[in-house]
Every structure is written in C-alpha cells, then in structure tokens.
Design goal:
Elements lengths: L9 H6 L9 H7 L2 H4 L3 H17 L5 H20 L11 H13 L2 H4 L6 H37 L4 E6 L2 E7 H26 L1 E2 L15 H7 L4 E2 L3 H6 L2 H28 L6 E2 L18 H24 L14 H24 L1 E2 L1 H8 L6 H12 L3 H18 L8 H7 L8 H4 L1 H7 L8 H16 L1
Parallel strand pairs: 3-4
Antiparallel strand pairs: 1-2, 5-6
Helix pairs in contact: 4-5, 4-8, 4-10, 5-6, 8-9, 8-14, 8-21, 9-12, 9-21, 12-13, 12-14, 13-14, 16-17
The protein binds arginine (ARG).
C-alpha cells in the first residue's frame, strides 16, 4: 500500500481515451505488480534497448528517436540503481513505470518504443532473462558448495564412520565417501540447471500481444542481442509459456530435497546422542533458557525452508493449470513464487556451504561408532566365501550365528575367541580377525564407487575434474 499513488490521473493517460475514470483503490491494489516486479528493472531496460535498436535497424524508428530512447533508458536505469526512482503503483508494473519515466525525460519518442511489442511479450522476455541469470548464479553457488564438500572429503578420505541403512548401523564407510555422495547429488542438480537453461533460451520478444505484428521486425536480431539462442516459433505459445518458471521451481524443489536431507543429517549428527559433528559458532545458536544448549538452527531452517520452495512450485502449477491460450492476468502471479524460491534456495545453498566449510567432525566418535552394531558382519561373510569357499547364503547363515553369539555375550565380533568362531564353523582360522576391524573393512571396499580411502582420493580428483574445472 505504501508506493506513492498520488498520480491518480496517470492511468487514464496510459489506457487512452476509453477509460474516463481511474481504478478503485482495491482494483489498483490487486492489479499492481510493481511492488515485486521492480526486481525485473535491469532485464526490462535491457529488453527495451534491444527492441529500440532493432526498430531503428529496420527503419521503423528514426535514428534520432532511437538515440534519445537509449539515452533516456540509461538515465532511468541510473535513477533506479541510485535509488532515486519513484516507483508508482498507479503505473501498475515495471514496464509502465520505466516507460512513463522515459516519457517524462524524452517526450514523445518514448511512446514509439512500444511499437511492435506488448507487455505480454515484454514480461515473458524479462522473466526469462531474470530466471536465466538466476540459473547462472545458482550454478556458481552449487559449485562452491561442491568445492567445500570435496575439500572436506579429501581431508577425511580415511576417516571411518558407520554407514547407515534404515538409520541403523550397516557397514563402516569413510566420511570422505559419504561427503562425496552429496557432491554427486548436487552434480545432478547442476545438470538440471544446464538443461533448464538450454531449453528456455529462446526469445519471446516480438510476439507482441499474442498474434505477432505487422511491422517488419527482426526477431533474430533482438534474440541475439539478448543472448538467446533463437526466437521462439509461435507467438501464441510465446506469451503464454511459463514452463521455464515451472522448470526452475521444479529443479529448485529437487535441490531443496537434497539440501533438506543434508541439513537433517547435520541435525542428527550434531545431537549429543551422535556427536559426530560440531557446527561452528557462526552457524549455531543458544537457548534463551537452557544455557547448555547449542542448537543447529541454520540446518533446521534449511530443512524447513524446503517447504517454502515446494509451496512455490505447487502455487505456480496451480496458477497455470486452468489457463487457455494465451496470456491471462493470472500469470502475473508467477513472479513472487519465482523470486521467493530463488532467494530461499540461494540462501540455503550458502548456509550449507558455510556449515560444511566450518564444521568440526568428531573423528574419534565416528570411529568408535563405526564398529558398533556388528557392522563388519558382511566382511565376515565375505571372508567365509573367499577363504572357505562357502556359497554366500551359507556364509550369511554362519555369520548370523556368530552375530547371535556376540549379542548373547554382549560383545563385538572381534572380541569372540577363535574357539567360539570355530564352534560355529570349524574351518574359521585366526585370519578372520584381520577382516573384522573397521579400517580393514573400509580398505577392502575397492570396487568402483566403493568406500575405500584409496577410492575416495581417486574420486576427489575425479570430482574436481567433473565439477570444479
Ligand atoms: N504486470 C503484468 C504481468 O506481470 C505485465 C503484463 C500485462 N499484460 C496485460 N495485458 N495486462 O504479467
């Protein structure tokens, strides 16, 4: 409500002679998008520059008008950047705010800028340019997060910890291997960013309101000037397409799933019960009542903010699902979810990168827990297959009996005596102890993609090449 809207006669100027009265206050409030679409100012002005230059090149605008439009646009942009521009809600959106200010500066030539275009192709172009920039920024941010994970993975290539399935200790793994798993997830996110960018990079500009235009425009020229690969092929589709926004929100949603899982794990690892990680002071907070508390707030917020991003996707899908061709004002509702999800995801990626860079891993606790819960039982079974030549199913049976014995005696597998092992299978020799330690266990997992420290170091080099080069 706070944008200045004292210029109440501007609307009738813009709509021309047909409207004698201005809108009611409620109409103005529901109709205006300037409160949020001012974020598109740079893209809007960039699009206008390209359009004006094309109009001049095609002889639709005079050189003189073109020159004054470009100069005026520079000045308008300067005012917005400097914070001196007065956005007006009566002027509804960023497109009309910019054009109106241009008119104040250069007079009638400003009115010629809107030849052969409409706000419908203009807004589609602006939002595409904005999303494209956001995708590029996101890719950089994800790369930074991957770099942090890869660095910590290298440092902890040989740190053993329990690996989990069902959140039950399963087999020992290396922390480096665990962290590199997230690097792969984020690599898929980045490949979705690239796909989305490649698919959306076609220019709608010049589709005009919906049907194209009778002016001899050059859409290839504007497409090229704006860094698009080519113009879109159907004017009706061009002004009604928001697939790029939906795809962007979809990939942000999948990314948010990943960030939320990483964050959830940090919350678990930071608990006293696990004590695998100490989140640095700058990403923790205390309790106002319990002085001993150290809460993983940033992780919890990353986990929680996933809900906002999913909400943006659901909202946008719902806005679009009932719209017949072509543009409907409903589509003005595309911007807030896109901006909010974008800001949210960017913040969450930065928070996760900050936390991984600064966290302390409690390697002693990880190692201590790595062997708890008979996590080397599979190594025992594998040994029986390899050395005693038992079929794996039989080896599984022998191992089950050994685990039961250890459970009954309330000890770990390596605490059983050789006689006890032999009471279950007489063929077992004391070589068995060499596979029961967690270090032996992880070192033996050298299969492609496996957890051994040697693999992790190779995977670190490989990840640097694939993701950071
Ligand atoms: N503010 C509008 C939007 O964000 C711009 C397009 C308006 N077009 C129209 N025909 N009213 O979608």
């Amino acid at each position: 409500m706070s944008d200045n809207n004292n210029d109440s006669n501007t609307t009738s100027t813009i709509w021309g002679a047909r409207f004698s009265d201005g809108p009611s206050a409620v109409m103005e409030e529901i109709n205006a998008s300037i409160g949020f679409d001012k974020r598109l100012y740079a893209q809007d002005i960039r699009g206008s520059r390209a359009h004006a230059q094309m109009l001049v090149a095609q002889g639709i605008l005079t050189e003189a008008d073109g020159k004054s439009i470009l100069q005026g646009l520079d000045e308008v942009e300067g005012e917005i950047v400097a914070g001196t521009f007065e956005f007006s809600r009566t002027l509804e959106d960023i497109h009309m705010n910019v054009e109106n200010r241009l008119r104040e500066k250069i007079g009638d030539a400003a009115g010629r800028l809107h030849t052969a275009r409409s706000r419908n192709d203009q807004v589609a172009t602006d939002l595409k340019l904005w999303v494209r920039d956001a995708l590029d920024g996101l890719d950089d941010a994800l790369k930074d997060l991957q770099a942090a994970l890869i660095e910590r993975a290298e440092e902890h290539a040989a740190t053993v910890m329990p690996g989990f399935t069902h959140l039950q200790a399963a087999q020992p793994v290396t922390l480096g291997h665990h962290l590199l798993a997230y690097t792969e997830m984020l690599g898929r996110d980045r490949s979705r960013v690239r796909d989305c960018r490649a698919r959306m990079n076609e220019s709608p500009l010049g589709s005009a309101a919906l049907a194209g235009t009778s002016f001899p425009i050059d859409r290839d020229m504007t497409a090229k000037a704006l860094g698009f690969d080519q113009p879109t092929q159907n004017s009706l589709d061009s002004v009604s397409d928001r697939d790029f926004a939906l795809e962007y929100l979809s990939l942000l949603s999948i990314l948010s799933v990943h960030l939320s899982r990483m964050a959830e794990e940090m919350v678990i690892w930071a608990s006293q019960q696990f004590a695998f990680i100490r989140i640095s002071d700058d990403f923790s907070s205390g309790s106002s009542i319990m002085p001993q508390k150290r809460n993983p707030d940033a992780s919890e917020l990353v986990r929680g903010k996933a809900g906002r991003v999913f909400g943006a996707l659901m909202g946008m899908l719902t806005v679009m699902k009932g719209l017949p061709l072509t543009y409907g004002k409903d589509m003005q509702e595309d911007k807030e979810p896109v901006f909010d999800a974008s800001d949210t995801a960017e913040l969450c990626v930065a928070a996760m990168a900050g936390m991984y860079k600064s966290a302390t891993f409690n390697v002693d606790n990880m190692k201590r827990d790595a062997g708890k819960g008979f996590t080397t039982a599979t190594d025992l079974a594998d040994w029986c297959v390899r050395v005693l030549n038992l079929p794996f199913r039989d080896a599984h049976h022998v191992t089950g009996a050994v685990v039961k014995l250890a459970e009954d005696k309330n000890c770990e597998l390596e605490d059983l005596s050789l006689e006890e092992f032999q009471s279950i299978n007489p063929g077992i020799t004391d070589e068995i102890y060499s596979v029961l330690g967690v270090d032996n266990s992880v070192s033996s997992r050298t299969s492609l993609g496996g957890t051994s420290p040697q693999n992790v170091l190779a995977q670190v080099a490989n990840a640097r090449e694939r993701f950071l080069a």
